[in-house]
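Notes from the 1:1 (GR / supervisor)

We went over the backlog. Supervisor wanted to see one worked example end to end before approving the batch request, so GR pasted a single chain during the call. The sequence is below; no edits were made to it. Supervisor asked that the structure be written out right there so they could see what the output format looks like.
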Amino acid sequence: MAKQKKINLPYSRKEMVDSLCAKWNSMRESSPDHNQLSLEQFRDLARTETDDELFRDCCNSSKKEGITLSEFMTRYV
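Structure output shown during the call:
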C-alpha cells in the first residue's frame, strides 16, 4: 500500500463538515421537497469523506455561490 502525502489544509475537518452542513440546512429550509436528507443524515454522510473530498466540496460550493472559500467558510461556520 502506497503512503498518501499529507496535505495541510487551511481549515479543520470539523470546520469543513460544519460549513457544508450549515449550507445544506439553509438549502433544506428554502426547499419544499421533504424527501431530502435530514441535517443529521447529511452530517453523517459528510463525515465519511476524506479531508481532500471535504475541501473540494467546500471549494465547489463557494464557486457555485460566486464567493471565495474564505467568505464561504465565514458565512457558514
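Supervisor's comment: Helices lie at 13-29, 39-46, 51-65, 69-76.
Batch request approved.
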